[in-house]
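I'll show a typical protein example:
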Amino acid sequence: MKKDMEIFRGDLVNPNERLYNEDLAPTKERKWGTYSVFAMWMSDVHSVGGYTFAAGLFFMGLTAWQVLLAEIIGISIVMFLSNLTSKVGTKLGVPYPVISRISFGVWGGNIPALIRGLVAVFWYGIQTYLASVSVVGIILIFAPSAKSLMSGSFLGLNYLYWIGFLIMWIVQLLIMIYGMEIVRKFDNFAGPLVYVLMFFLIIWVINASGGHINLNVGLEGKRLFGLNAVYTFIVAIALVVAYFSTIMLNVCDFTRFSPNFKVVKRANFLGLPVNFTLFSIASVITTAGSIVIFGSAIYDPILLVQKIPNNTAQLIGAVGFMIATLGINVVANLVSPVYDLANLFPKHINFKRGAVITAVLSIVVLPWKIYESPVAVNYFLGGLAAFLGPIFAIIIVDYYIIKKEKVDVQMLFQLSGPYWYDNGFNKKAILSLLLGTIISVPVAMIPTFKVLASFSWFIGVFISGLSYWILMKETVAANVNDYKKEPSL
């Protein structure tokens, strides 16, 4: 069949050990069907951060239907862009760092890989810290006296939260060291679990509020009209795209295990437009209900669960959202740096060792300190994230426009050939990356450009994508005798 013929299924011939290990090689395991990829997206969306983000969009001064429309448009753009990177992973069977070699060179590919990996390490630590709140809640339900452990601290974190953090840290590491198949099975369970919790949370909120829930929660005294409403509507769309900018870049780490692109497209549709819209509606219902019940909006579902006057409900909710956070942390923040580290030292770092190193780094960066400082989050992590748009543009323009989907997979693991460029680096890709980030990073970080900050990802995509196309348009696509392109999927 045409779809099978497009997928690289060969064996690598004498790959260079400085570029190769089994975790980076084209996979022969293709077990990620529609449900597994769909569940991966559910794990990515169904998090405390995703809940807060989705509900927060309803407080921008737009009506509920305007926000929902903006979310649908934004998540549809995310689906389209994710399909582009998903297809590369499915066809070639290699992870994001190896795909980066196509445009940046076999050594240069480490640049975009490490940028993405660095962002992930910090967020991995932060998400682990946030999830420890659920663990602490569970501990206090069973052992209220443990609250005394909050009186002392080490490296800025009290002892009780250290216990919660390390429990989450160990559980996540245990999942990862057993490889991607365990990740798939865990996501298959964790992804849909939150819907069960949200269903019961909605029932409780509706009952506790007497059914007096107004979805237009963000309109009191600040409804926007005219051009202000149009601008905010566009900002909401841009924020949705920017929120998913990290996973859009390395979704190929998961779709490489899918049997064909048809499966991936179906899963992306279910996991993004359908799933995100339903989750957003559920998030705003519970947030709007919290205003009626408690007098102010509670954006954090863990805090909302802790206010339910029933220990059993608190326990179930805490465990559920802890599992949900495990899901997104593994999907969005742990898989990526593991592959990135393996790509940097493939001879010495495999998937398991990469997982251990990433986990250790997530403690070294003291994520609770970063989270407690809005300046650190906004400037450091925001600045790093502004690199992701230019990287995305270069990889996509190179693969679809410059290379025209023709890739010699064998040569991605050789110190010669079309991806060697200039001593392993494609200087045109690096220059294009710099041109994009020189503009997008200041736009994202400097208050003077606040009106454009929400669009920094798009600005980086446009500048780097255009500059790379101009610099590379005369380049002839790599000659591929071993990998012949069939008609597009």
Remarks:
- Residues 17-379 form a domain with the Hydantoin permease fold (CATH 1.10.4160.10).
- Residues 261-294 form the longest helix (34 residues).
- The chain has one domain: 17-379.
